[in-house]
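Please decode residue identities from the backbone states below.
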């Protein structure tokens, strides 16, 4: 794949791998290997939660790094919690470039985050929100899934045409409650271990722009190496502005590869 990192894609709650249908072909045209991970907590089984999601993503990453390929993880919404947790021990040391992953020759070189929050080690999704349930959804005690209260087209796709927005609403799937209220033991602040590029969505009705800015600033204050780009879209820029989203990912890869190269040269000189 021309020395390019493999891209591991992680979707958000209620969504599935189709989320990436518009941008993956564009990236494959640029010789990237793209791996879309289906999260078990969205498989209509309420018994599956965050630990199963993290394992699925970690297995996908290791399948690449064990073959000597570097990886960039691309996450959206709830996928940010999963992706950050899954990279534990698979990155290079930020200070000296050494590798804690002794059994692999490839590494996670960074995380590209789209409209998401920053995982806090030991805290499940709801704990990270301070235990406050967002008004757009509610827990259904009978089914074990999370129900959307607000119009999902307005939450996720309001900048698409009505016809296309309705199509994507029809493609939404169940999201287990368990994934959001349990599993803190699987959560890890992997964004502290590797550079992050963050795409902030300015028209977002699902995760408001101001909330995203607060999350980013808090992460920077906690020591995160975060580069921010903004896009004038809803919660789903990969659908409404796929070319711009691809450009963001490609720019992130280039910057992270350059950073890795400089770090290796510096370590070699010393």
């Amino acid at each position: 794949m021309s020395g390019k990192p493999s891209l591991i894609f992680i979707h958000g709650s209620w969504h599935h791998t189709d989320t990436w249908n518009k941008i993956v072909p564009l990236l494959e045209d640029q010789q990237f290997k793209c791996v879309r991970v289906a999260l078990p907590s969205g498989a209509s089984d309420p018994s599956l939660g965050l630990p199963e999601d993290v394992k699925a993503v970690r297995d996908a990453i290791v399948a690449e790094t064990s073959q000597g390929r570097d990886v960039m993880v691309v996450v959206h919404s709830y996928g940010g919690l999963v992706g950050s947790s899954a990279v534990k021990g698979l990155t290079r040391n930020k200070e000296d470039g050494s590798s804690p992953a002794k059994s692999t020759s490839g590494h996670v070189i960074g995380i590209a985050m789209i409209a998401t929050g920053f995982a806090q080690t030991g805290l499940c999704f709801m704990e990270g929100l301070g235990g406050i349930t967002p008004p757009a959804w509610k827990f259904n005690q009978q089914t074990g899934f999370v129900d959307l209260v607000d119009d999902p087209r307005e939450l996720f796709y309001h900048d698409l045409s009505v016809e296309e927005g309705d199509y994507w609403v029809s493609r939404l799937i169940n999201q287990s409650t368990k994934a959001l209220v349990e599993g803190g033991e699987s959560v890890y602040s992997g964004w502290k271990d590797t550079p992050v590029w963050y795409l902030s969505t300015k028209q977002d009705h699902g995760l408001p722009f101001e909330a995203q800015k607060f999350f980013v600033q808090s992460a920077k204050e906690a020591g995160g190496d975060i580069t921010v780009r903004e896009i004038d879209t809803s919660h789903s820029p990969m659908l409404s502005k796929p070319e711009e989203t691809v450009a963001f990912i490609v720019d992130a890869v280039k910057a992270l590869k350059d950073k890795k190269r400089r770090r290796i040269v510096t370590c070699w000189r010393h």
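Observation: The radius of gyration is 18 Å.
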